[in-house]
Amino acid sequence: QVQLVESGGGLVQPGGSLRLSCAASGFTVSSYAMSWYRQAPGRDRELVAVIPTTGGSTTAVASVKGRFTISRDNAENTVYLQMNSLKPEDTAVYYCYAHTGHGTYWGQGTQVTVSS
Fold first, then answer.
1. Which three-class secondary structure string do you get for 72-110?
2. What strands, in cross-sheet order, belong to the sheet with 18-25?
3. pLDDT 10s digits, 96-108
């Protein structure tokens, strides 16, 4: 059974950092592109970052370029989102997403709140 479990969210002051984790089970994260999305109140869910199977990373939202980094630990079967220099506009629920050969899967989400 495929499962994605996010953790690491919380309340942080502007300029602070958080690292989100997405622990996967039921499939191997190194075999598929993995993504992070976010959804702020009253807004559509948006793609934040993607890590392809070939390595490297891509940040899809211009506003997070240079601040957010997606990475993968194959031994832990976990995907991370390192978020630095956080801004109030980064406040959202962050979701992990996988599109495997058997379907598409979302985690339950983790809340990130950036506020002083």
1. EECCCCEEEEEECCCCHHHCEEEEEEEEECCEEEECCCE
2. 3-7, 18-25, 78-83, 68-73
3. 999 988 889 999 9
